[in-house]
Amino acid sequence: MERLLKEKDVKPNELSPLTLAFIGDTVFDLLVREDLICKANRPANDLHNLAVQKVKASAQAGFIEKIIPHLTEAELAVYKRGRNAKSGHLPKNASQSDYHMATGFEALIGYLYLSDRIERIKELFNIIEN
User: Fold this and answer.
1) I want to staple 17 with a disulfide (CB 3.0 to 4.6 A). Which of 30, 85, 99, 128 is the partner?
2) Is 46 an annotated catalytic residue?
3) What pLDDT shows up at residue 94?
4) Distance CA 47, CA 101 (A)
């Protein structure tokens, strides 16, 4: 995985945490989906159900707790900015705290992706998976 539009200039430090979460959500979803199909050839509906279990807010809240000890100060700051962002959205299927933690997690993934730090995303994903 690499940034698809590398020629487009973007400054992740200048983007809002919710903008980072917007792209981070998709990047993490793609990573989960690719991991699932690499593990086994399954019917699409089964793949979808397995992916949903990993990308839902409660799962992402658990993932961030697992990787926090491995984050740099800068990465932790990005996570906290995302966690503390006011989205004006009330989660339907998640607790408020899980939703905020998941938003922080997605902001971190988005930040790393837009910073072209794909290897770091893979490192954190490996921690999550083990």
Assistant:
1) 85
2) no
3) 80
4) 25
pLDDT in tens, 51-108: 999 999 999 999 999 999 999 999 999 999 999 998 777 677 788 899 999 999 999 9
The answer to the question of residue 44 being in a domain is yes
Residue 3: inside a domain, yes or no?
Answer: no
Domain holding 34: CATH number? 1.10.1520.10
Count how many domains the chain has. Answer: 1
State how far the Cα of 87 lies from the Cα of 18, in Å rounded to an integer. Answer: 7
Domain that holds residue 107: 14-129
Is 26 buried (19+), middle (13-18) or exposed (0-12) by CB count in 10 A?
middle
Catalytic residue (one of 9, 25, 29, 46): 25
Do residues 83 and 104 make contact, with C-beta atoms less than 8 angstroms apart?
A: yes
Q: Name, in order, each residue with C-beta under 8 angstroms of 90's C-beta and a sequence gap of 6 or more.
A: 96
Residue with tokens 């792209």: 23
pLDDT in tens, 60-74: 999 999 999 999 999
| Cα 100 from Cα 123, distance rounded (Å) | 23
